[in-house]
Amino acid sequence: RTKTQNFCRNEYNLTGLCNRSSCPLANSQYATIREEKGRCYLYMKTIERAAFPRRLWERVLLSKNYEKALEEIDENLIYWPRFIRHKCKQRFTKITQYLIRIRKLTLKRQRKLVPLRRKIERREKRREEKALIAAQLDNAIEKELLERLKQDTYGDIYNFPIHAFDKALQQQDAESESESDAEKEEDDDEDTDKREFVEADDSDLSDFEDMDKLETSSEEEQEEEEEVEKKASHSRSKGKTPLKGPARRKRPYIEIEYEEETEPTTKTKAT
Amino acid sequence: EKLAARKKRRKEREALGDNAPPKAVPKTIENQRVYDETTVDPNDEEVAFDEETDEFAPYFNRQTVPKILITTSDRPRGRTVRFCEQLSTVIPNSHVYYRRGLALKRIIPQCIARDFTDLMVINEDRKIPNGLVLSHLPDGPTAHFRMSSVRLRKEIKRKGKEPTEHVPEVILNNFTTRLGHSIGRMFASLFPHDPQFIGRQVATFHNQRDYIFFRFHRYIFKSEKKVGIQELGPRFTLKLRSLQKGTFDSKFGEYEWIHKRREMDTSRRKFHL
Prior knowledge:
heterodimer; A: 3-stranded antiparallel beta sheet; 3 strands; rod-shaped; B: about 270 residues; alpha+beta; Rossmann fold; 11-stranded mixed beta sheet; about 25% helix; globular; Ribosome production factor 1 (chain B); rRNA processing (chain B); rRNA primary transcript binding (chain B)
């Protein structure tokens, strides 16, 4: 409903507005253009057939050619009031234009709207939350990572003394202490060359121990003596790490980025 | 009333001492899950044979290196764009391309020509990403997911930096059935085969009750039995809607699995993945 005019609900209306001049009920001589399945028809109503509602509207198929169709409208509506003729042609033009647009659109991809069902949506959301809680992702991930560590998928990057290994090594230690001492010194030198396993700086660099092993382990061959050595020093440093426990967590995450840059410089210092 | 019953039970247990019956396991949905006959047995020969001859074989035999194309539906909104960028940092060797009205059917031959192995289309609705179409390109299966609960990196409470360029590890959890197995392989084929452990990053796809949760973490081993993880990278959850045999084709494709709501959502304890 526009400000000044109503819309006419009659389907045979020519303009769509409710006026005295464009109402099919009010005028006994009337014509409209309507289209069905892409073909346009001209509907006409004359005063002679007012008594026969069934034959009231006469239908003429218009040609597909735009100009020809306009001529047909003209010849059918010859001697009809100018208003009706003009409006008919206007309506016909509009209709053909939108038909063309429809045909073009169907060629392109069309967006299919699938309605979401609210109940289902809510149900899914709730189920997802519950699944999330049931999943306990953090724990699962941690477990998986530890599993992989145990199964040695990481190779020798991380050197943590495993308990069984510990016991075996302890036995070996007891037996061959003197040997290991001698070898320890050799290993010491190697260690200071390859990685900054500087015992003097244990307090500060106890955090760095693990990082260093990360970076440089690819070169090293793991022999039992070295592990023993590491284990010994590790157990020494373990006394210190609990202190750094809470602080430790924050540091690695920030410093890991700088590791690779500072390493070469410190390496040269050591050598 | 329940409290009273529980107290009574506890007293009985204490009274019996060593002869007490073992503690009852609480019933969870996972426990009560309807047994799915397509569960994969690790030693199943048929499955192993299938896997050698299916479309992921070249990847698992290390013949192809994954190269991924990430794109969106038309006119992506800001959130989706940012999400695409973050995804591309998470997945190594991936590229984001915008789509100005290009038909998917025409994109696919182009991708194959340019040697991409996977195509990911993030569908968007009302300014948030809500769907994901993942198709393995050289004529591989296409999976269509509904994506929900997308968190961008700045929305996650963490203190970490952005994911580096190292190849992350992949964890696939809980993909038990045959269908789940194939989807799991599909995810695995997105990432290059050799993770760089220096990077200490891990991408996790965890399946729980048919919802696949994706997380991206950085881990550190504090000691031999303790690991700390820190979440960086976006997170989202996926729910599988359909799996098609060939590449994306909505009309003529052969569907291997579609989620039919009426049939499949009847029981609360039945899951398909």
